[in-house]
Each structure stands twice: as C-alpha cells, then as structure tokens.
Specification:
The structure is a homotetramer. Chain A is mostly helical. In chain A, 78% of the residues lie in helices and 0% in strands. The longest helix of chain A is centred in the last third of the chain and has 31 residues. The termini of chain A are far apart. The structure holds a DNA duplex.
Chain lengths: 219, 219, 219, 219
Amino acid sequence: MSAREKILKAADELFGEVGFDAATTREIARRSGVNKALIHYHFETKEALLSHVLDRYYGRLSETLNESIGAGDTVRERIVRMVDGYMDFLDANRNFSRIVQREASGGGNLERIRRHMKPLFEIGKRLLVETYPATRSGELAAEQLLITFYGMIVGYFSYDAVLEYLLQTDPLSPKNLAARKRHIVRVIDLVITAVELEAKQAGKAVKKKPKGRKNAAKR
Amino acid sequence: MSAREKILKAADELFGEVGFDAATTREIARRSGVNKALIHYHFETKEALLSHVLDRYYGRLSETLNESIGAGDTVRERIVRMVDGYMDFLDANRNFSRIVQREASGGGNLERIRRHMKPLFEIGKRLLVETYPATRSGELAAEQLLITFYGMIVGYFSYDAVLEYLLQTDPLSPKNLAARKRHIVRVIDLVITAVELEAKQAGKAVKKKPKGRKNAAKR
Amino acid sequence: MSAREKILKAADELFGEVGFDAATTREIARRSGVNKALIHYHFETKEALLSHVLDRYYGRLSETLNESIGAGDTVRERIVRMVDGYMDFLDANRNFSRIVQREASGGGNLERIRRHMKPLFEIGKRLLVETYPATRSGELAAEQLLITFYGMIVGYFSYDAVLEYLLQTDPLSPKNLAARKRHIVRVIDLVITAVELEAKQAGKAVKKKPKGRKNAAKR
Amino acid sequence: MSAREKILKAADELFGEVGFDAATTREIARRSGVNKALIHYHFETKEALLSHVLDRYYGRLSETLNESIGAGDTVRERIVRMVDGYMDFLDANRNFSRIVQREASGGGNLERIRRHMKPLFEIGKRLLVETYPATRSGELAAEQLLITFYGMIVGYFSYDAVLEYLLQTDPLSPKNLAARKRHIVRVIDLVITAVELEAKQAGKAVKKKPKGRKNAAKR
DNA sequence: GATGAATGAGCGTTCATTCAT
DNA sequence: AATGAATGAACGCTCATTCAT
C-alpha cells in the first residue's frame, strides 16, 4: 500500500473514531507509519484530507446505489435492493456514517455532503414519484419517505454505540444486521402498500371520497 | 441571569454550532461575557460543562415525554402525543439534537447519552410490547420500531442543514415541521395497523384476544 | 520588571540581532524567561510584538527630536541639536536602526514606518524651507537634504557591523561617534553656507546671473 | 535560459522582495519553474544561493566602478562618474541594495558583504587621500566622506518604499533619479571645494602646493 | 540534469487549566 | 464570586534538505 493510501486509511479510521476536530495529524501519521510532514505533502491540509475521504466514500456509495437501482424487476424489488446495498455499504464502511453524522451538523464539509447527497436524493425521489403517484405530495410524499428511509438505515449505524448499550447486543453483528434489514423492508412494504392503495382509491375517487384516510390524518 | 447560567447558555449554543471539540472556553467566555477562569470555577472542566448541558436537556426531555405518555386515552394516542412532544422539544431546543448527534458517535459523553436514553427506550419498549404482542419479536419488534421512530424524528432535526439544501426550503419552518409530523404519524399508524392485524391473526390461531395485556399497559 | 516588559526587551534585542523573520517566539521566551504562551497572551501575534517595539521607539524618538528642535538660538544650532539628539538616541537604542533598516525594505511594517516618519520628515522640511528659501527646490531642495542627512546619520548605525571591518575600529565607540558627529555637522555647515549664499545671490540676481553655479551643475 | 540561471533570477527577485529568511525554496522553485530538489542540486544550500547572488552583484558592481574610476580627466570628474555609475547600477539592479540593506545588519552573509566592500572602500579612500590631503584626517576625513557618499546614494534606493510615501512620487522615476544625482554631485562639490580650500590654507602655511600628490593619484 | 517522495526539526499559535489575589 | 497572569502540552503546518530513481 502506498504511503498516500496508508494516510487515507488512517485518517478515515481516526475521523470515524473521534471526529475531525479531535483527530490530530500526529496520530494519523503515527497510525499510518509515515512522517507527519508527508501528510501535508500529499494532502494540502487536514480539511483537504477529510474532503478526500468523503469524496472517496460518496464516489463508491454512488456506484453501489446506481448498481442496485439498475437491477430488479419491480420497483419494490429495486428499492429493497437499494436498502440492501446501502446497508451492506455502511456495514463494510463503518466510519462513513459516523463521519457524515458529525460533519452534517455544520462546519466546512457541510457543503460537500450536501452536494454529494443531492443527486442520490433526486434519483430516489424521481423513482418514487414516477412509480407511485400518491408520493407526489401529502403525508407519504417522496421527500418525507426518503428522509424516513434514510433515518431508518443510517441512524442504525451512526447510533451503533448507543444501541449496543440499549439492546445489550452488538447491533452490527450479521444476525442483528439481517434483522434490521428485514424490519426496514417490512416498513417499506407497509408504505408501498399504502401508496398503492391510495393510487387505487384515487382511481375510484370519481365515485367515492377516501374518507378513512382523512380520519387517520386527523389523529 | 447569573454568571453560571450565562455560561451554560453560551456553552449550549457553541456546542450546538461547532461541536464540543471545536468549541473553546475562550469563545464561551466571550459569549457569556465572563472571565475564562470563571468557567472553571463553576464547572470543573470543559467536559463537565458539556455534561451539565446534556443532563439539563435530558432532564427536561424526560419530563416532557413522561407528561406526553401519561395523557391520552388510547395507546396510539399516547404514542402520537410522544412524537408530538418530542418534536416540539427538539424544535424548541435545536442545539440538543446536534450535540447528541455528534456525541453519540463516541467520545467521553457517549456513556452519559447511553444512560439517559436507556430509561426512555425501556419505557417505549414496555409500552409497545405490552400493548401489541406482535412487537415482542419479529420484523416489527419493539426495538426495531423504536429505532425507526427515533430515526424518523431526530434525523430530521440533526440533518436540517443538509435537508435545507435538498428540499430548498427551511425544514424547521412551522409549516414544514407540521408536514413532517403528519408523515411520521401516518407511518406510525401504518405500523400500528400492521401489528394489530398480526395480533388478530395470531389471536385466531389460539382463538382468543390478549385482552389482559392491554390493561397491563395502562398501569 | 514585569513579564510584559521583559518580553518587549527580549524581542527588541532579538529583532535587532537577527531580524524579524529569523527571530523565534521560542527564543524570545527563553531570553525573557517567560512561558512561550505568555507572549501571545500579552501580544496577540509576533507581528504585533514588532509593531509594539517600533511604536515605542518612534514615540521616544519623536519626543527626543521635538525637544531638540525646540531649544537653540539659531536655526543652524537647532539642526545641530537634532543631529546630536538623533545620534545619541540611535547610540542608546542600537537595535532601532537595524530593525528599521530591515523593515523599511518591505513587509507588513513598512506602512507603520512610513506613518511614523512622515511627521518627522514634514517638520524638518518646514524648518528648512522657511529658513532657507534656496531649499524650496533645486539641487539643495529640503527633501534631498533631509534624505542626505538621514543617510549620513542612520546609515552609520545600521552599517556598523560592516564599518567595524572597514575601519578596523568600533564605529560606535564614544570617540568614533564624536568624530562622526563632527563630520556630519561640518557637512551640514557646508550645505547651510551654500544655501545662504544662494539666497544672497538671488537677492542680487536682478543685476547678475549666478553663472558659476550653473557651470557646477553641468558637471 | 538554463535552469541554473532561472533559479538565480528567481532567488534574486525573491530575496529582494521579502528578504532571505522569508524567502522559501518552494517559492523560488515555483517562480523559476523548476523542481525544488533541483535548487539543492545546483546550489548546495539556500545560503549558498544567496552567496552566489551577492557575488554576482558585487562582481558586476566592481567592474562598473572600476570602469568609472578609470576614465575622466580630473579627480572630481572621476568621483562624479563613480556616483553616476553606482546609481545607474542600483537603478538597474534594484534588488541589490535591498538585499545588502538587510544582510548588512548581521547574519551569515555579513562577512561576505564586508569582504566585497573592503576593496571598493580602499580604492575610494586612496583616491581621496592621495588627491586631497585634507581628507587624511579631521572632519572631512576620507572614511567619513565615503560613508556619507554611500549613505546618500544607497540609502535613497534602499528606502525607496518609505520615500515614495514621504515624497508622494516614485523616487526611482528617471526624473527623480536625475534630481537625486544632481543633489549628490552638488554636495560632493561642496565638500571637494572645502577640502581644496583647506589644502590651500595649509599650503600657504608651508608656502608650497602639494603638486606631487596629484600625480600620484593618477597612477 | 531532473524529479516525486520523504523526513526531522521547528515554526507561530492555541488549548484547557491553574494560581495568586 | 471573580479575574489577570501564567503555564505545559499540543496543535496544524512549513521549513530546508535528502534520497532513490
């Protein structure tokens, strides 16, 4: 492995463990076994190093998700594949969600995260809206669904340290990860069923108002 | 306002804005208009200051949620009230979710967050399990549901800066917050409907509804 | 002596010895016997420390020169007193001319030096112009004279290290300083005589052209 | 232009602009368009690079001054030619006086400057002493005169940035340079007249003019 | 002759914290 | 309760220089 790659690897790990601010170039140098100055030779600043790490992650995530969305017969299956692919990616790159988790709250890399997320968000949105008319607006609007899906998936990884304590088991063990996947797919199925039902009712709507729905919305 | 309170307020804001590590005692002193050394007089260390901020938040959140869960006729209504109360709390204390977001990934305050979350998690879990037998395990197990609910709610606040860009509108505006609430409640309704349906199907299998459970949940 | 003053003294010396860029805060701390961080507590940056040193010097020089120019019966005497006062000042503050020497060539403190020199320059100029009409323009214009006087005086101090080698004696010994003073006063006398002569000839000029002068100008 | 020459040129410029200490090999490499390591291939150290620049300057200055001093009928004319040549040289090599200005105050190149200046100083001294007996000692001693001439000439160039502000015009414009030259020559004329007058008065005292001296000065 | 990679030393600066008052 | 002064440790970063190719 080249020194450059060793630096990237060490930085990725340290950023994930303690966060960007608490990570020091000295420790990155120590872990990667290179001279401290070499970090600044390969990456202008510590910020640039983080940017590099993030760009690499998002590049690979993008590939993964685009592959997932490409395959699959039905839309539901494609969505499930995306969930699957996303979770496998976060499983294989555990620092990623932690880094994003911290940087998304503000700071110099917020803009970078925004720009990386935008196309992924748009793809998901278009897929939902074009398939399920009921997600164009309302309680199950595509935007809301995507935020919910994202929260279900990413939250599980970025809160793993807390969950370990709450659940008294390793949330990232293969068994538990599989359970989480089944849960998420189940919730997504519930939602898809609901939006499909709405579509049907909207089709009949010339005859009948979707009365039951309205009551539910009232709480 | 006492110097002590001014320090807490400034620290809370700064921790929310830039995170614990990037926050400096100098800036906290500047914002609260007190001498830097006074911070250490009132709060032993910077860590202790964060602990104080967190404890205060969790104390108030606990109260809020306990009040929410207390009122309400049906369990569904009590859940909805909790969602409502939680979101209102995060809305009124916007630094809170950001601080937790960052600290939950690790660091010295992870333990603190774990301990604060545990009772809230247990209360929610008992409520679900005692009311809906189907949440005892399986795809819609109480733990999974709580993580999902938490992700739906908290993620929305802690990713507000990113969402602002993705949605091209302020996600924390009253209008958008109300829409988010409706979405979350709707998803919860879908889930409750599902677990109730499962219970009925299970009931048919053993011929009887688990009525006693419902009484137990009321406590 | 307060820590602040000890720092200023050490900084002054070191800046004079090796120049601003080669001077390190570590060495300043070492020489003044204070903690390195204390330098930044009392003086924001290393630059600010230099500015402080310079301001103090120019403040004292200003006083000195204003006192010198105030006393004295004739203008010639007042000029001589200024030369005297200036040289005594540079003798007593040997780092001063070296620091100015280096900073005047450019860098962040050029502006500061410019602003300090301006009023001194204007005072000298006014004194000359109002006393000797011949210095209003021409070969012995006040500006040229002041630059020459400045070069005669300050150059002697800032090149002392070189002069020591060229003259094979300490140029700043009391004896040599006195000799330099006599030389400078003598040259100034020659110049004053010349401008007084020009004034007289200009008075007669209605009758006769200053022919000899013109030849001299031709070289 | 060879890489070596490009490096020398860039170093010369940078040393003149920011001084030796603030100049970095990185910037020299950038400006000359060569690899940083190549600088150390051609010039052992950064110090050696400065030495090269200085040696080149002094070599050319020596030539210039020797040419100037060679031509001319009278000694006065030869002196004037030297002033002319010196100022033209400083005008054509503006970094030179700035570099010398900074290095003459101390540091590793002081010795080099001393050695370069020594012969020039001795030549000037001999010329004066052999021509004008009055410069052998006293208020108008040759050493004093040379320091004064040097200060008048070099100070004008090395303080150009300050003078620009004091005079509110570019001191190095052809017009202003010409004016400075006329001033300097005029002052030198005053001095020569004075030393000649002293010689005459001394001659009267011993009845005879020191004629043989003049021949000796021609060499 | 030329270069990308690498390094030890050291830079100015900032940190949370302590202390004397 | 409050503060100005002080400190040891560590920060990100840059330096001139070296080395292998």
